[in-house]
Amino acid sequence: MVYIVAITLGLCSGYLWPQFGELLEHALWPVLALLLYCTFTQIPLAHLPKAFLGFRFLSAAIAGNFVIIPILVWLLLFIVPDEPALKLGIAMVLLVPCTDWFITFTQLGGGDTKYAIAFSPISLILQFLTLPIYLLLFFGKEFTTSIANDTLLKAFIGFIVVPLFFAFLTERWAETKQIRLRAIEWLGWLPVPILAIVLFIICSSQVQTILAAKTDYMRITIVFVLFLIFAALLSKLICRYFRLAVQQGRVLAYSMGTRNSFVVLPIALALPAQFDVAVVVIVYQSLLELIGMVFYIWIIPKKLFQDAKS
Q1: What is the 3-state secondary structure (H, E, C) of 99-110?
Q2: Per-residue confidence at 1, pLDDT binned at 50, 70, 90?
Q3: What does DSSP assign to residue 82?
Q4: CA 238 to CA 244: how far, in whole Å?
Q5: Which site in 1, 112, 241, 249 is 20 to 30 Å from 211, CA atoms measured?
Q6: Cα separation, 193 vs 212, whole angstroms
Q7: For residues 242, 246, 252 and 254, what is the CA-based torsion angle, rounded to 10 degrees?
Q8: How far is residue 3's CA from residue 205's CA, in Å, rounded to a whole number?
């Protein structure tokens, strides 16, 4: 509800007062950097070696998110209108698994949270390594090279690498004293209100792009809904193949169904102007995903990954 209100107010303010939206656009970058910093502090970056303890689950999660899901995304792009910006936005957001709120959904959906926490830092590293490779494979060298520029590199360093580095330092600082861990817990509450501010600013500053893309929303919705359905079904097959426990299977399902939309957002914002619609696609996906997770929380433990006694 908070996000819906933020989007509604952003669209109204941007439509009624276009100059106000343009002014807000300058505030987006520092707010987005703060959002990513707070998000990264919830990922156990300082305990990366512990993530390799559950080798079978880790293998299944890597195969599912970085081999099977890219194939699914490639197939789904065939039903997307032949618009480069649209396809790029869908590919960018669906190729990167979530590293933060999927832990919350795992807990709500009866999964073994320690596996979700362990997989998060590995997932974050792998998605940064694999995203350029898959974009190159999907769109070709000429297209991928055309969207690469200095601004894109600066956005990656300034809004991904730098917040990630300071989040790591914060975690190390918090480990030295028990009382400092409260700071990490406090930072964990900030992403929700900050994300609402980000959505407000984006909708206010990008209102014309959002309205111009209205004819594509039905097709985009179908793609994202199909992704959620197939991600859940594929996680069941992968779980059987790797002989995972039920609670591990639930973690796998949530990791494959949730995407890291606001980590790729600064990269999308740094793209050339003709790719503005990619930003809209990424924001739209995150909202549909939140709705989809309401169904996941019921379907995953009750239908796909039931306890033995059920």
Answers
A1: CCHHHHHHHHCC
A2: low
A3: S
A4: 9
A5: 1
A6: 28
A7: 160
A8: 16
Dihedral sign computed on CA atoms, order 211, 216, 220, 221: positive
Distance CA 70, CA 68 (A): 6
pLDDT in tens, 65-77: 999 999 999 999 9
- Tallying the residues shown for the chain, one arrives at 310
d(CA 302, CA 166): 40
Domains of the chain: residue spans and CATH: 27-176+206-304 (1.20.1530.20)
Q: What's the rounded Cα separation, in Å, for the pair 275 and 254?
A: 29
Q: Rounded to whole angstroms, what are the CA distances from 34 to 39, 102, 111, 226, 232?
A: 9, 20, 29, 32, 32
Instruction: Name the H helices within the chain.
Output: 2-16, 18-40, 55-63, 69-76, 84-94, 101-108, 113-147, 150-156, 162-175, 181-187, 191-205, 207-212, 217-242, 246-257, 261-269, 276-299
pLDDT higher than 70, residue 205: yes
Across the range 255-282, mean pLDDT stands at 88
Q: Check: CB of residue 68 under 8 Å from CB of residue 234.
A: yes
- Count CB neighbours of 52 within 10 A: 10
Nearby residues of 89 by Cβ (< 8 Å), 6 or more positions away: 268, 275, 277, 278, 279, 280, 281, 282
Structure confidence by residue, pLDDT tens digits, 7-21: 888 889 888 888 777
Q: How far apart are CA 127 and CA 43, in angstroms?
A: 14
Distances (CA, A) of 134 to 138, 139, 174, 273: 6, 8, 36, 22
